[in-house]
Amino acid sequence: MKSSGGSRSLFWAIGGTVVVLDIVTKWLAVQYLSPRPRPIIGDWLTLQLVYNPGAAFGINVGPYSRWVFLVLALVALAVLGSMVRHSKPGEVLRLTALALVCGGAVGNLIDRVRSPRGVVDFIDVGVGTFRWPTFNIADSAVTVGAVVLAYVLWMEGKEEEAARGPDGADPAEASS
Q1: Is residue 137 part of a domain?
Q2: For residue 165, is it within any domain?
Q3: Which of 21, 119, 141, 169 could form a disulfide with 100 if both were Cys (CB 3.0 to 4.6 A apart)?
Q4: Which of 46, 21, 22 is nearest to 35 (CA)?
């Protein structure tokens, strides 16, 4: 079993890498891209500069979107931080998922603090008029991390259910 320090180091390495990659790619997008699509792989993958003042999928709550989503990101980071602190040594997949989500949240949070224009998005995928909402590295990390975290939590729930046994009683409570 890996030490807690090793697992925590992995968390910080992954989360930090996501933040750095996000900052660098957004800076490059602002410097070199325009709102006009730049095809990379035909029509399927294009790069174009877009500012998103709202949240994922263009969710917007009006003129206060920047501040509402900034506060929500801070709350989410506090909850995720608690999950990190309560992770057991060696829960590498759980900590990896949490690092991806936290790193992505921090990347987009930096944009919300830095610019009233919103989060820098630049990756556009789709076919013809059927396009996925434009996104960035932070969004990708949050999405992958959230899917992996959902899987990890689901598996933890199944393990707890199996440990309780077929009658649903907790063996620890039954022995007292």
Answers
A1: yes
A2: no
A3: 141
A4: 46
Domain residues for 32? 4-160
> Which member of 22, 111, 124, 139 is catalytic?
139
Q: Has 43 been annotated as catalytic?
A: no
Helices 65-85, 92-114: crossing angle, 10 deg rounding: 160
Catalytic annotation present for 139: yes
Considering Cα of 25, then 131, then 105, then 95, what sign does the dihedral take?
negative
The pLDDT value recorded for residue 65 is: 75
SS3 of residue 170 by DSSP: coil
Beta strands in 27-161 (DSSP E): 38-41, 45-52, 119-127, 130-131
Rounded to two decimals, what is the model's pTM?
Answer: 0.83
- Which entry of 22, 111, 121, 124 is annotated as an active-site residue? 121
